[in-house]
Amino acid sequence: MSDSEPTSSGPASSGSKMKDFNQRFRDLHKMRQKARKENHAQVVEEDRRKKLPKNFEAKKERDQWQVKELQDRKEAEDKGLDYERVRSLEMSADVTEKLEQKRKRKKNPDQGFASYEDMTLRQHTRLTAALDPDLESYKKMKECVGGEQFYPTADTLIHGNHYPTTSAMDRLVKDVHGQVKRREQYHRRRLYDPDAPIDYINEKNKKFNKKLDKYYGKYTEDIKDDLERGTAI
User: Fold this and answer.
1) What role does this protein play (predicted)?
2) For the chain, which residues make up each domain, given as ranges?
3) Contact of 125 with 108, CB cutoff 8 Å
């Protein structure tokens, strides 16, 4: 074969390149279609989330937690275990204490001072919740005094018909002493501090200075220190 004879590799190479180009074009078209579908799905999902309530995610997590808690509680009951004890063992002591305090506040919430009647009712609720009634003594006392005296009306004379037991009186004394002790501890925070700096001339001026220090103390701390050291300009 002479050098001047034309070869057939030129058209074949050109056709192969065109085939590769068409294949790449089809692959790019498929990727573009896939990206368009995924983008459309994300837009639809984002629009769906925007239409949901603001607390939807928090509510969803809370519902999932409640479902898990019910499942764990049922599993513990099937095994004959106390769920509250099992859950407490899985938590740290400070978290368990905070949850217990939160549960107590929710059961008898302190909504601030409203009236002395509300404070008395709240204390009554707290004290009665701490009672451990003795049903046996209750039944014996009912049999002893009779139904009419045990459930008195406005016309019933009940003087001298009730005789508390020694154990009941001991519990009452112990409870009263406990209330006095708690009250002393509560007021102990308000006792006079002999080491506190004296920057007032009377009680009214003392309260006024405390208010000033509460709102402006962080701004005047350097000036106050300079005045005390005698280095103020």
Assistant:
1) Involved in pre-mRNA splicing.
2) 200-232
3) yes
Task: Report yes or no: 39 and 31 within 8 Å, Cβ to Cβ.
Answer: no
pTM (2 d.p.): 0.31
Question: How many Å from the N-terminal Cα to the C-terminal Cα in the chain?
Answer: 110
pLDDT of residue 31: 92
Biggest CA pair distance of the chain: 143
Q: Which residues contact 113 (CB under 8 A, 6 or more apart)?
A: 119
Q: Kindly report, residue by residue over 43-87, the tens digit of the pLDDT.
A: 888 888 888 777 877 888 888 888 888 888 888 888 888 877 777
Name the burial class of residue 2, with classes exposed (0-12), middle (13-18) and buried (19+) by CB atoms within 10 angstroms of its CB.
Answer: exposed
159-194 burial, b at 16+ Cβ within 10 Å, e below that, comes to eeeeeeeeeeeeeeeeeeeeeeeeeeeeeeeeeeee
Amino acid at 233: I
The three-state secondary structure class of 43 is helix
